[in-house]
């Protein structure tokens, strides 16, 4: 009979062992994520509602805000949960999902920023070829 064991969770390192600092981390995460959600929500609603902002630059800015929301909503809620409830574990499936979604959102942001740079390059250096 072989001796085997399986581990189904990762252990997370805590930011702090004291309850007051964990609450401080929770409130900081909450405040920063709400500010980012509010800012991205304003950009999304402004671009979606105003037909004058339906230009390529604003289209890419809208998509950049959406991917930024995705990357924020991927990592911050678990960090807030860990700070508030003093949990120090994450399942393999949860960790894999977080890593996949974060890499997907960040690579999408890099691609969008690259496309936005090329869009601005064409608009500035070759204005006659740029359709608005």
- Looking at CATH, which topology would you report? Rhopdopsin 7-helix transmembrane proteins
- What profile does the largest beta sheet have? 2 strands, antiparallel
Q: What's the CATH H-level homologous superfamily?
A: Rhodopsin 7-helix transmembrane proteins
Q: How many structural domains are formed by the residues?
A: 1
Q: How do the SSEs run, as a string of H and E?
A: EHHEH
Q: Which CATH class is shown?
A: Mainly Alpha
Low-confidence stretches: none
How is the largest sheet built, in terms of strand order? 1-2
**N- and C-termini, Cα separation:** 72 Å
Q: Which percent range fits the helix content?
A: over 70%
The CATH architecture can be given as: Up-down Bundle
Q: Please compute the radius of gyration using only Cα atoms.
A: 21 Å
Strand proportion, as a percent range, falls in under 5%
User: Could you say which overall geometry the principal axes of the C-alpha atoms support?
Assistant: elongated
**Total DSSP helices:** 3
């Amino acid at each position: 009979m072989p001796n085997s064991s399986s581990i189904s969770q990762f252990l997370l390192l805590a930011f702090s062992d004291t309850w007051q600092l964990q609450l401080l981390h929770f409130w900081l995460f909450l405040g920063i994520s709400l500010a980012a959600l509010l800012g991205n929500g304003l950009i999304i609603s402004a671009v979606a509602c105003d037909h004058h902002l339906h230009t390529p630059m604003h289209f890419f800015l809208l998509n950049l805000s959406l991917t930024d929301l995705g990357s924020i909503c991927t990592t911050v809620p678990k960090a807030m949960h860990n700070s508030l409830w003093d949990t120090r574990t994450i399942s393999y499936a949860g960790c894999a999902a977080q890593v996949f979604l974060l890499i997907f959102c960040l690579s999408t942001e890099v691609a969008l920023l690259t496309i936005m740079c090329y869009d601005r390059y064409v608009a500035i250096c070759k204005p006659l070829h740029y359709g608005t």
